[in-house]
Amino acid sequence: MRPMGRTFDLLVRNAGTVFTADGADGGNAQQLLGPIPRGAVCILDAHIAWIGAEGDLPRESVTPSTKILDAGGGLVVPGFVDSHTHLVWAGERSHEFALRCAGADYLSISRAGGGIASTVRAVREASDETLVALALPRLHRLLAQGVTTAEVKSGYGLDADSELRMLRVIDLLGARQPIRLLRTFLWLHAMPPGSTDRAGFLARGRKVLREVARAGLARFADAFVEEGAFGQDEVRPFLEEARTLGFGLKLHVDQLRAGRGAEFAASLGALSADHLESIDPQGIAALASARVTAVLIPTATLVLRLLRYAPGRALVDAGVGVAVATNCNPGSAPTENLALAMSLACLQNGLTPPEALLGVTRRGGEALGDTSLGRLRVGGPADLLVLGAPDVDHLVAHVGTSHVQTVVRAGRVVLRSDANACS
């Protein structure tokens, strides 16, 4: 359970409940959360070295050199995983919010030259230093929400140089702040502004994909399969080659229109199918059979003023793992508020509070193909939060409010309130 004769670096104690999110497969949400009443967590060398009831703590490994983090009776949970973001961008699209309030929809804004195309123009004009400077405050806000791992997509360059540059900027950001960043290559986000050569753009994407693979610039590949973006026949060769090259696949599907996108994601063995507002029962069954994680993004559903939210309740009841993410981006989800996404996932997608917590922990890690993320287990990464909430219901019911008091990333306290200072 722990290295013998070693002193723990950090002890997290006095928790009301420790939720490991590492319960045995097959249980209900509460069982999957793996609650340990009056639990404690011990950290050594940036990993979890011991976890259990505080009364069973191995006292011989707690010495004066061990730092103590008093949870003050709050909840201790895995660091949150934001499994779908577009947080590197330049430019300003707040006017689109006003257009939506006046009745404009996503497709009409895009056809008028706004939307993704507007951001592409701004990103191409921005320097690397500008992109980094703009993204760092967004990451700080995500950290304050308890995010210790975030997936980050390219997709706002849409030419070879700009897309490669975006992926390198994400790498720079990973070294300049504490959140672990996992990169996704999103060439198939939209057609470049002013371009009508779809065949040429698709062919160039496969060439850039090989360069991304050679340079190790991304872990995942993605495509926006939707009316106004790309069709399944267009993106299939790119995604199949990406899979052959070792990329995990993550797809934007069934958001604006029903298009059998979930079935398409299942047929490709994707890690996740994201959005899903328009998924049908056949699509739900396909995701369950292929064990594809569904990523719900209710903040985008809200901002886009879509008529229906993704059927989270039906997905969970069918046995689909359901993650919850911010989709942080400049247009359809201009927010880093993961707490709001969790609350909306309950109010509008039909999840229970324990399922929402699973959605930003264990299920978020599964959406990224990494079962070490979003869980507290011996030998796993020491990414955890202290939350100032008495129980999971309160955590989600206090709508849009972050209860994060302390963030521990890789065994190091990286954000804390005065009430949770280490001794």
Folded structure, characterized:
This protein has helices at residues 29-32, 94-101, 106-111, 116-125, 128-144, 160-176, 198-215, 232-244, 261-267, 281-290, 298-303, 312-317, 338-347, 353-359, 362-367, 392-397, and strands spanning 10-13, 17-19, 35-37, 39-44, 47-53, 67-70, 75-78, 80-82, 147-153, 180-188, 220-225, 248-253, 272-275, 293-296, 322-324, 384-387, 404-409, 412-416. It is 36% helix and 21% strand. With 423 residues, it is of the alpha/beta class. The protein has two domains: 10-78 and 375-420, Urease, subunit C, domain 1, CATH 2.30.40; 81-367, TIM Barrel (Alpha-Beta Barrel). The protein is built from 16 helices and 18 strands. The longest helix is centred in the middle third of the chain and has 18 residues, at 198-215. It starts with 9 loop residues before the first strand and ends in a 7-residue tail after the last strand. The strands form three sheets. It has an eight-stranded parallel sheet with strand order 8-9-10-11-12-13-14-15. A six-stranded mixed sheet has the order 3-2-7-16-17-18. A four-stranded mixed sheet has the order 5-4-1-6, with no helix packed on it.
